[in-house]
Design a protein that fits this description.
Length: 133
C-alpha cells in the first residue's frame, strides 16, 4: 500500500495528468491508454474517483476510435480482473469507486454510448461487484 507522501504525490500527478489530457491529450491514443491505466482496480479508490470526476464531461474521449474489438476486450479484462472474493480472495471495490462509476453513466452534455470504453468499464465494474455480493 501507499504512504501518505506517496498518495499525495499520486494525487498531484493525477491532477496534472487530467489537466493535460483535457487540454491536449484526447487526440492521442497513447495518452488515452495511459489515462485508462489509472481506472484499474489496483489503484487507490481516490485515484480512480479523481480521474472519473475530473474527466466526467469528456469521458467519451477515453474511447479510441481505431481500437479493434480484441484490443478493447483485452483492455477491459485487464481493468476489471479481480474483485470476486469467492474466486480470487480479492476485495470488493469501495463504495466511492462504485458511486463514481455509476455517476459516469448519468446523462451529461455528451452521453456515453454503449460502445464507449467508460460505459463498458462501468457496467463491468458494477456487475462484478453485484456478483460478489
Amino acid at each position: 500500500f501507499f504512504s501518505k507522501d506517496e498518495l499525495k504525490a499520486l494525487d498531484d500527478f493525477i491532477d496534472d495528468l487530467c489537466n493535460s489530457y483535457i487540454e491536449y491529450g484526447g487526440q492521442y491514443p497513447t495518452f488515452t491508454n495511459f489515462i485508462r491505466l489509472f481506472l484499474r482496480h489496483d489503484f487507490p479508490a481516490k485515484t480512480i474517483t479523481a480521474v472519473l470526476t475530473k474527466l466526467h464531461p469528456i469521458l467519451h474521449v477515453l474511447t479510441i476510435e481505431e481500437e479493434d474489438k480484441q484490443s478493447l476486450v483485452f483492455s477491459l479484462t485487464q481493468s476489471i480482473s479481480g474483485g470476486l472474493p469467492s474466486l480470487d480472495s480479492s476485495r470488493r471495490d469501495p463504495s466511492s469507486v462504485l458511486d463514481s462509476f455509476s455517476t459516469s453513466l448519468k446523462k451529461r452534455d455528451k452521453e456515453l454510448s454503449r460502445n464507449d470504453y467508460v460505459y463498458l468499464l462501468a457496467i463491468a465494474v458494477l456487475g462484478r461487484n453485484l456478483a460478489s455480493s
